[in-house]
Amino acid sequence: MSELIQIVDSLENKISKLLHRLEVLDKANRTLEDELNHIKSNQVNAQKTVSEWEEKYNSLKLANSMLGSNTNKTEAKLKINTLIRELDYCIAQLSE
């Protein structure tokens, strides 16, 4: 009978340790999920910032080429032609 009590005590002890370990792992998991969400948020913000700077850079490049910079004249002409085509398309859509 005492052997059975020892087995039950041993099982209770192991279950208690497993439950404690589960709590610790759940807490660690929640911490990692919070950290992941924070990092994802930072990544989205960084991507938005990069996108804004790329747009500003392209606008500046286009403005420089329109001011007479020889390095980007063909690019400026292509951009102007694209804008003209878009305007023509819009005008055609409005006249229908």
Automatic annotation (TrEMBL):
Residues 1-49 form a coiled coil. It comes from the Bacteria. The keyword Coiled coil applies. Keywords: Coiled coil. This is Mis12-Mtw1 protein family.
